């Protein structure tokens, strides 16, 4: 049966916090270790069962080498939220809570329950930091993100460093912001948002050539950002700063 993503009918279920194989091929554990992408059904039934929350959690916890995307119906409507693990084509059913999503990522990379728990705790700290940042409590946001980083979750570290880079830039700690952006890129070399943060830090430090190179690198990874107002504003600010230096 075709599920729209080239997925074969190999199924697992997450029940009571335990990953249970339903139809599990021989040597499947080795195949699972090579997972490259998780696709989350966001069709109507799975959406009602919480697939958007699952998608958000998986995106936040996934290591840089694991892509997480939405997709259409995978079949088994009513047993969702349903996921597909590619390229091997496993179907995962009933992955409807953050704990189950974290456990799935931990299982894919042969980590234990403690790793799943620490990743969820780091994600909770990051969400608290986002609220503090929105409320302009920048020092508290930085502290929360530092606590999340110090917990060393197995997934999402590149996002944590990127977020702290943004906060440190707002605090005026430009060197710290640059260091965090570089840490994010060390973990995820194709992370366009980290290149944006690196460019912002270079721009604040008046290192214009490096800022331009960082922005161009982000554009090379994600050409669609060229259309965003924020990216256009960054380029305009860079041009204005360069012009001011050239005319002074």
Automatic annotation (TrEMBL):
SUPFAM superfamilies: Thioredoxin-like, TPR-like. It comes from the Eukaryota. InterPro entries: Thioredoxin-like_sf, TPR-like_helical_dom_sf, TPR_rpt. Transmembrane segments: none annotated. TPR repeats lie at residues 192-225. SMART domains: TPR (SM00028). Gene3D superfamilies: Glutaredoxin, Tetratricopeptide repeat domain. Keywords: TPR repeat. This is Uncharacterized protein.
């Amino acid at each position: 049966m075709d599920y729209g993503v080239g997925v074969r009918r190999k199924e697992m279920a997450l029940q009571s916090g335990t990953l249970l194989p339903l139809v599990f091929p021989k040597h499947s554990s080795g195949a699972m270790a090579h997972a490259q992408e998780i696709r989350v059904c966001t069709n109507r039934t799975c959406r009602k069962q919480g697939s958007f929350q699952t998608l958000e959690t998986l995106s936040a916890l996934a290591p840089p080498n694991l892509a997480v995307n939405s997709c259409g119906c995978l079949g088994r409507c009513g047993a969702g939220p349903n996921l597909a693990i590619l390229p091997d084509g496993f179907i995962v059913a009933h992955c409807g809570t953050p704990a189950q999503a974290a456990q799935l990522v931990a299982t894919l990379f042969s980590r234990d329950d403690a790793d799943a728990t620490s990743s969820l705790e780091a994600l909770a700290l990051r969400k608290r930091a986002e609220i503090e940042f929105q409320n302009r409590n920048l020092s508290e946001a930085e502290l929360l993100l530092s606590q999340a980083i110090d917990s060393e979750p197995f997934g999402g570290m590149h996002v944590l460093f990127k977020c702290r880079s943004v906060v440190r830039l707002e605090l005026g700690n430009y060197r710290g912001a640059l260091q965090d952006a570089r840490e994010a890129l060390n973990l995820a070399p194709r992370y366009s948002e980290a290149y944006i943060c690196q460019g912002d830090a270079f721009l604040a430090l008046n290192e214009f050539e490096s800022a331009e190179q960082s922005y161009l690198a982000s554009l090379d990874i994600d050409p669609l950002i060229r259309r965003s107002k924020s990216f256009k504003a960054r380029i305009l600010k860079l041009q204005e700063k360069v012009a001011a230096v050239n005319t002074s």
